[in-house]
């Protein structure tokens, strides 16, 4: 995880009404390509080869499919080929991620899902362009196919971008998100290491008392507001295939506004916390937890998972920027292992049990603190460098 890597710089776009219909048409074509790829991928999942291996899905076949589709369909050909090809890459990437997670034996809740069909009503438009699909000229963004967009340059791009994503959010605003090579700003070495465990009550419990991240309470009023708008939307929902009512749309916009505010607050908290971690430690051993936001989970669980996701992203970005090493630790059994002697508990410890008691060596410590120390051990970092409590003391 060393080195600079890439970062995103995002700007608002000003789009004319002609631009809006242009982007809408491009998105319709990319959405069609996405859904075709998903259909092919589903078919492949069902097919097992005679030797028992899963059938492969390289990009060659979908590329071929796209070429043929563009030849036979004038509508598809009217759109630029770059975002359509990029759509194929994105489906393949998302599929590969899902297969990798299954292969790694991640628990269901943390696995990336297989790419799913994008529905016109629900999916938000997003178009991806590689370097040959866009250019910046006189401060304006030129997209393949001829659309020119006005960018609101709220801050300077540090270098020439390698790709751009044009997308619309749930409020109807359009953005351009550029990928640029990140410049590193190394910080002085501290000689200290830290282990970080994610959780519901505390977003992050660490091996250092001063660096825990409590679950933010500020989202609570916003969350109840959001729930109210969601109930309003549910009441005003019209039957399938009929247009949305004005009241439904109003409630939808209000809900989008509130959730946007929650996201911003969460990011702000996450960045401040990440900054303090990166300032004080050279090596970070972090649980590689990947929340999935399943529909069945509760609102509180979803909020906790979203806070974890924001903190983890901020931490990785901040560490990259300042040249700190991040060690991602596989989450399996991290709550069951003893950080002191390495013994594994025979049974899963219920979430209500807040202390970890090792049956092998007798160490007693707060459950999450033990998990944070397990991260250090698993990452091969010397636990002596962290705040360790001697056996049986706490
Ligand atoms: Zn032990």
From TrEMBL:
Keywords annotated in UniProt: DNA recombination, DNA-binding, Transposition
Highest taxon in the source lineage: Bacteria
InterPro entries membership: Cas12f1-like_TNB, Transposase
Domain Cas12f1-like TNB residue range list: 313-374
Domain Probable transposase IS891/IS1136/IS1341: 178-289
Family: In the C-terminal section; belongs to the transposase 35 family.
Protein name: Transposase
Source organism phylogeny: Bacteria, Bacillati, Actinomycetota, Actinomycetes, Kitasatosporales
